[in-house]
Amino acid sequence: MTLVLRIGLLSALAILLSALAAYLVENPSGTSAGTISSNPITSYLTLAGLAHGLATGTPEAYLALGTFVLIATPLLRVATGIYYFGAHHERTLTAVTVTVLILLLLGILVIGPLIH
Amino acid sequence: MELGLFVLILALVAIAAGFVGSLTGLGGGVVMIPVLLIFFGVPFPIAVGTGSVTILATSATTGAAYVRDRLTDIRIGMFLEIATVPGALVGAGLTVFLTHSNLDQALLIALGLVLLSIVPGAIGRRHEELPAGVEPDRRSLALGFRGEYPDAALGRTVAYQAGDTDSALGVMFGAGIVSGMFGIGAGVFKVLALDRYLHLPMKVSTATSNFMIGVTAAAGAGVLLAAGYINPVIGAPVAVGTVVGAYIGSRILPGLHNRTVRWIFVPVIVALAVETILRGFGLP
């Protein structure tokens, strides 16, 4: 599980750092007020929007991707927990972990889009 | 303010947030969210959503380090997520609803008062190095919720047995709601449940709380992200800075006495509580 955390975290940081550098280069006259008042995330909440942003090399799209990876890392850790507890024949904890993963996915794929 | 300077300041504050968050099990959001609100005028729901990025980064960094130091009890932590994750989903949904109803200031005051109510208990037990006389319930015995860890400060291996799981599950559900609503990780309540109801050693409580915070925050962050409450331009320097601070904090923790961790824990709660109450009343 430690490996999953490390890979997820390092991947997210690498994407975020390079995207942030590109964003700063592309916005030399940017201000804190402008950044705070405009949130570009809404353009990249769909697969099509994200894919288009990544394909065209938009820094904001890569910033969004890094954020997605950061949020997905704990989910991957839970998924590896299912394998870990299953391998040790811990039925109750395996069932608990499967339920936790389903709830996490429910929040991201159903509740979040419904609220949006 | 110029964007480059803004990003630099965010990263530096996030280093401090990550350091405090990993040492106390609170998560870095307790520092980051007030700073975003007070010094940069970030709207409340965006601050909460962006702050949750801090929590994820802190937990991922310290989680790996604590597991390596054998301080995290993953079995107990994962079991308790069955309560925190549904709580976080409810909380994240509530915060979206309440921010549209202009009730967020009243909630800030309530949160501050709840946090202050935790302080007397934390101070009252501050001299207790390790729990003693723990009576496990049937579930704790059936699932084998016990373990041991090498305590570098005491110079020996410490064994422990978890106590009251029912009460811990109840507190954890509340912790999940607070985490989803305020994006602070709710490590305060998680450490409370692990320390006071399960009677785990403080260092195991803190490390296990850090593990749990990440999963709980991911539940709330996922909902808030989909609702457009996470700004990735602000989130990026926050995440990078937090990781640096959290790594430093996690390297220091194994060598500390439990009393030291508790003394760091208490003033952070007080500062957070006062801050949230002041903001609730609209004061600077």
Description:
The complex is a heterodimer of chains A (about 120) and B (about 280). Chain A is an all-alpha fold and about 120 residues long. Chain A has one domain. Helices cover about 80% and strands about 0% of the residues of chain A. Chain A has five helices and no strands. Chain A has helices at about 1-25, 30-35, 45-55, 60-85, 90-115. In chain A, helix 3 (about 45-55) crosses helix 4 and helix 4 (about 60-85) runs antiparallel to helix 5. The longest helix of chain A has 29 residues, at about 60-85. Chain A is elongated. The mean pLDDT of chain A is about 90. With about 280 residues, chain B is mainly alpha-helical. Chain B has one domain (about 5-280). Helices cover about 75% and strands about 5% of the residues of chain B. Chain B has helices at about 5-25, 30-40, 45-70, 75-100, 105-125, 140, 165-180, 185-195, 200-225, 230-250, 260-280; strands at about 145-150, 155-160. A two-stranded antiparallel sheet of chain B has the order 1-2. In chain B, strand 1 (about 145-150) and strand 2 (about 155-160) form a beta hairpin. At the A-B interface, helix 1, helix 2, helix 4 and helix 5 of A face helix 1, helix 3, helix 4, helix 9 and helix 10 of B.
Provide the residue-averaged pLDDT of chain A.
Answer: 88
> What helical percentage do the residues of chain A reach?
over 70%
> Unreliable segments of chain B (pLDDT under 50, ≥5 consecutive)?
none
Q: Structural class from helices and strands of chain B? A: mainly alpha
Number of domains of chain A: 1
Number of strands of chain A: 0
Put simply, the count of helices of chain A is: 5
Order of helices and strands of chain A: HHHHH
**Spatial order of the strands in the main sheet of chain B?**
1-2
Number of strands of chain B: 2
The residue fraction in helices of chain B comes out at: over 70%
Mean pLDDT of chain B: 79
Summarize the structure.
Chain A has 116 residues and is mainly alpha-helical.
